[in-house]
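Standup notes
- HV: blocked on the assembly model, inputs below
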Amino acid sequence: MSSVGEQSMLETVGLEKSYDDLAALEPLTISIPQGQRVALVGRNGSGKTTFIKLVVGLLDPTGGSVRIAGEAAGSLAARSLVSYISDEPVLYDDLSLAEHIELICRLHGAQDWEDRAIYLLDRLELSSRIDRLPSRFSRGLRQKTAIVLGLIRPFSVLIVDEPFVGLDPLGREVFVDLLGQAANGGSTLVIATHQLEFAASVDRCLALRDGALVFDGPPGQAELSDVVQ
Amino acid sequence: MTSLMRRSSSAQRELLLDLRRTRRRRRLGDLDIVVSIYRVYLTAILGGGAAWVLATVVGGHHETSDGLQSVIAHGPEIVGLVIASIVVIGLRSGGRGGPLVLDAADVRHVLLAPIDRTVVLRGPALRQVRYAALVSGIVGGFAGVLASRRLGGGWPTWALLGALVTVVAVAASLGCAMVVSGRQWRKGAVRLAIVGVLSWSLADLELGRATSPMTLLGEVALWPLRFSWIGLVGIAVGVGLAIAGLQVVGGTSLESSVRRAGLAGQVRFAVTTRDFRTVVLLRRQLAQEHERQRPWFVIGWRSSRVAKQEAQGLRSWNVPQGGKRSLVDALWRRGWQGLLRYPVVRLARVVLLSLIVGLSFYGVWHGITALLFVVGMAQFLIGLELSEPLAQTVDRQALQDLMPSSAGRIHLVILLPSLCLMVLVDLVALMTTFVLGGEQSTLLSVGLVTLFPLALTGLSGAAMSTISGVPPAFRESDLFLPPEIASLRLYLRTLTPPAVSTLGAMPVVFSAEIVNHGGTTSATAAAFAGGVVTLVIVVGVVVWVLVRDSVRRAYAGMTERSRTGVKS
């Protein structure tokens, strides 16, 4: 278990999201300390992705607030702290993998990123494709590209939505290892997943059902599997 | 804070320019010169054709002095109302996160990066304003030339002022859109602004005064006839709105940007393939227009009557009585169940379109026959809105194939509830004309004769479009046709449904001709004759709907047999 800092890195107060009369996320108040590894679990339509997009700033909350290290989600400061890897890679059709990496590093002011890029590309077996267009990659390779882009830039909070979609077993293994490295480096991890075996390796589990928080505690408890399965 | 956040905005701009340069280089590398030249050729042909048609319609004869006085008296207000409509389009677009449509990757990577979003978005916003200004300047300049032919005076002055007014109007519209999206106005505020802008211009028109900035800008368009300094205020307000928009565009919501990034490209693609159905669906998604969770009232096996019977113990199990109900009954209910889930905004849009039909009929009645096309398009759009149950069925071919009836019969039956609503909507349209027309008895009788043909053709055109689906870009039979004929077939197929919807206005056109120019028969009889012609066309559409599927299947079977050499 990684050491968990006292400072709240991610905090939501009464955070909610609804679409007309449909509540996607009921008011949610949680606090995640620095360095904590959190698994967000729940069935399809439980509100995991909505929560994640609200934290990242891709959705506007209907009510409540999200703060990243005390800064409002979506603000300039929060954006420099949060890295987001989605289950659907969004990439430029007309930039090569190398150009994507350079762009992301420049956008986020990363320093001395070249060695780190080589390391990540090597681990995810993308080195030979560095000058190719990711738009022509397979689903799994596009997901690996998104992982490289999510991990190459500096961050304090890493948010991952369904991390293993499209990955082969070796890719999963490498990604889990890379997530461990990020956590050991002091980053806060929030990972939305269906897979309880992965959730067992984190510090804390949050379970959502129909947009409401129904479990908040350490993994491995019986009621958690009731919620997900 | 990261080092990047301390970087100057000029460094951020340089970074974004680098990205743009790289992407442009790659795009230019992939550019097909022949395709580009062909596009320019097509644009020139279509633009030239449209210009010729407009020039012919406007004509070259000068207005009489009475006509000129009328233009001077009401021109600014009418031009102002047109400008107000352009501004309203901007306000609506802003309410949906527009006017910018960004690449999804730009939203994900650039807008989520710690870079000032105003720096990121001002560039694309400025380019959009520039492009819109260029296009609108050409259109406005051409309109100015046309105006000079009717109103006299040197065409360069008219063209210059026409271009100036349209450029300012479009820039103001885009500015409004950016202010609304950048400041993230709520829906209610946007609607209030729309009502305010339109009401102000309408009030100017009614009172014959120039108080609204849009009317003031309209004054500029008529400077060759009457110069007034006050027009400069209109220009200043328009330019001010554009500048204000560029200042605040950075505040655009990411949620709207993501939605637009995903949908706007699809809408454009659907428009290029003339896929009206997909355009309608995507536009609804863009506006976040969803069906109601609860219908306006419940019919069928969850109705209050059935629930009451359950509560009283008269019915033990609340499922449909399988086999007892006919397919017609089931489809009739299914049609209503879909219509009863329409959201308020869609119903309001249908009513608005019906008012446009009514106003246009008023114009047709007074001799402006060209408004026939406005009636046709509005009727076609109403038909598309109201034929949603049919579209839902057509979209789900597999489910439709499971029904124990022919596709044609299913389509006709499911349209019946839509037809009921269409009659109601067209009643509103004709009542509008009747009220505007001073409640003349002739107008009333013509309206009554027109009602059913109008509703039937409106829905027929929409149903043809929905059932036909996307026109195929190529068919095997095209191999035997010259390319010009094959492309003509494509255009005919695209234009036939709106043309059928337009034919519903024929009774009013026929009777208006009698009223305005005299004739041997009465206006009502002329309307009746128009109605009969219209009904014959409707019967043709009904037959087409009934036999289309079987003819297609037979043709496909024949083709397949001839290909495989199997004799029937």
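- HV (later): unblocked. Residues 62 and 151 of chain B are 6 Å apart (CA to CA). The two ends of chain B are 79 Å apart (CA to CA).
- Next: hand off to the docking folks.
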